[in-house]
């Protein structure tokens, strides 16, 4: 039987475990690095984890099929993602509880169990696809998946289970550095920057079902349930105090902006090359990397591969953590990155099982990744409106948030975001189920 720890003690443990402790003596250069890393955290990690292998494939497909025409949607989605991320971070700081724990306390165990079951199914599927992404990225360098994937899985497991929250967070932040490969690849593609600027502010609409599907998929892959679940729980474990609330909100918003800038550069890179040369059909992120070679050179292919590797490693690490957070919070078990199995058995066992199963399935020859992602897409499409609804309701609740509740313009913007995003998500579910 798991040992129950009072919420206050959990908060104290989180605060003392997660807060960075600097060495007594630092060189000026190292001090600047630590100060910079201190500004980064769960917001950046959560938002960039959404740019996983499936997300990169979606953005590449958008650029290949329609050029720059869908860039305006990235602007709107950035606003929505920043708002949702900010509210999740705010709830974590103010309440000291993860989203799943708040749902269980405020709406009952049934909703909590439903959300937990859906998250387990969806996140396992995405985790498998991201280990496939690791294998595909290193496969561009000629490394077999039977070698690359198990090594990556072992490394991720050691970071999460054998390290501390502080060390794991720093490594996850370093995992975001490969994302800078995409802006460089976009520059190498020599896009028409005037056309890019126009596409960002002038909406382009195509009267076709394929365009509608990609538009909805772009929104769906940018705002995914596990991002908010991870962010709120990670803020709690980091031990952020209420007097640091504004800083944490700014970090969450900045993370969303950075992640969507990367998405925009992926669309620009593929639009300037693949779309221009008539290569419109991309089935995976690795396909996009290989297709860039004839038009933007070998360096562009390498850069896309580096970006895919970093994205896949980050998402493959965050997904098991987010899933374990949800299960532990829903059932009231002890949780925490870096906890040993005897301290938090359920938390550690779920992480271990997801990493092992995800890596094992990923190395099976001919694994139907596309079919898997379609099924995950449906589950995520149902789960996202529920998650967003709970975030909106809890964030505006005086009982839960007190003086920090969202109201006025912020509350109205959150309601619109929930309504529009939920409509797009459920539309994608209907299109997928009907095979359209």
Which labels suit this protein?
20 helices, 77% helix, globular, 436 residues
Fold and architecture overview:
The chain contains 20 helices and no strands. The longest helix has 34 residues, at 298-331. The radius of gyration is 21 Å and the shape is globular. Mean pLDDT is 83; it is low at 1-24. By secondary structure, it is mainly α. The chain has a single domain (41-433), classed as Amino acid/polyamine transporter I, CATH 1.20.1740.10.
Q: How many domains, as an integer?
A: 1
Q: Which CATH class is shown? A: Mainly Alpha
* Radius of gyration from CA coordinates: 21 Å
- The secondary structure category is mainly alpha
Largest sheet descriptor? none
Termini separation comes to 48 Å
Proportion of residues in helical segments: over 70%
Q: Can you count the beta strands?
A: 0
Broad shape: globular
Uncertain spans, ≥5 residues at pLDDT below 50? 1-24
* CATH evolutionary superfamily: Amino acid/polyamine transporter I
CATH topology: Amino acid/polyamine transporter I
**Architecture in CATH?**
Up-down Bundle
Compute the number of helices: 20
Helices and strands in order:
Elements: H1 7-18, H2 28-39, H3 42-49, H4 53-66, H5 71-95, H6 99-107, H7 109-139, H8 145-162, H9 165-175, H10 181-188, H11 193-201, H12 209-222, H13 225-238, H14 245-275, H15 285-296, H16 298-331, H17 345-362, H18 369-395, H19 398-401, H20 408-433
Helix pairs in contact: 3-13, 3-14, 3-16, 4-12, 4-14, 5-11, 5-12, 5-13, 5-14, 5-18, 6-7, 6-16, 7-8, 7-16, 7-17, 7-18, 8-16, 8-17, 10-14, 10-16, 12-20, 13-16, 15-16, 16-17, 18-20
């Amino acid at each position: 039987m798991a040992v129950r720890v009072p919420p206050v003690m959990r908060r104290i443990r989180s605060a003392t475990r997660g807060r960075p402790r600097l060495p007594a003596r630092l060189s000026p250069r190292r001090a600047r690095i630590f100060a910079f890393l201190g500004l980064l955290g769960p917001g950046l990690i959560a938002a960039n984890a959404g740019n996983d292998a499936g997300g990169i494939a979606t953005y590449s497909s958008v650029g290949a099929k329609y050029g720059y025409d869908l860039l305006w949607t990235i602007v709107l989605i950035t606003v929505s993602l920043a708002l949702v991320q900010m509210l999740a971070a705010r709830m974590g700081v103010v309440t000291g509880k993860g989203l799943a724990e708040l749902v269980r306390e405020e709406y009952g165990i049934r909703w909590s169990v439903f959300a937990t079951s859906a998250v387990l199914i969806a996140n396992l599927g995405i985790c498998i696809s991201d280990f496939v992404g690791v294998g595909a990225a290193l496969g561009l360098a000629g490394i077999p998946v039977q070698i690359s994937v198990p090594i990556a899985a072992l490394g991720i497991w050691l970071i999460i289970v054998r390290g501390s929250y502080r060390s794991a967070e720093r490594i996850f932040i370093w995992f975001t550095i490969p994302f800078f490969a995409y802006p460089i690849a976009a520059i190498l593609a020599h896009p028409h920057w005037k056309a890019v600027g126009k596409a960002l502010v002038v909406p382009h609409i195509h009267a076709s079902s394929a365009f509608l599907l990609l538009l909805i998929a772009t929104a769906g892959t940018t705002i995914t349930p596990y991002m908010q679940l991870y962010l709120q729980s990670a803020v709690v474990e980091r031990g952020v105090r209420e007097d640091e609330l504004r800083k944490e909100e700014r970090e969450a918003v900045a993370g969303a902006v950075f992640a969507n800038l990367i998405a925009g550069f992926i669309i620009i890179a593929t639009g300037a090359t693949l779309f221009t040369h008539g290569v419109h059909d991309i089935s995976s992120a690795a396909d996009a990397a290989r297709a860039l070679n004839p038009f933007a050179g070998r360096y562009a292919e390498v850069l896309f591969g580096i970006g895919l590797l970093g994205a896949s490693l980050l998402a493959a690490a965050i997904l098991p953590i987010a899933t374990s957070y949800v299960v532990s919070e829903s059932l009231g078990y002890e949780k925490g990155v870096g906890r040993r199995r005897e301290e938090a058995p359920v938390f550690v066992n779920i992480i271990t099982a997801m990493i092992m199963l995800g890596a094992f399935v990923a190395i099976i020859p001919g694994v139907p990744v596309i079919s898997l992602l379609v099924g995950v897409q449906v589950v995520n499409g149902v789960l996202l409106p529920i998650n967003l609804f709970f975030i909106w309701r809890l964030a505006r609740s005086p009982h839960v948030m007190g003086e920090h509740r969202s109201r006025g313009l912020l509350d109205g913007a959150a309601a619109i975001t929930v309504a529009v995003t939920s409509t797009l998500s459920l539309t994608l579910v209907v299109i997928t189920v009907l095979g359209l």
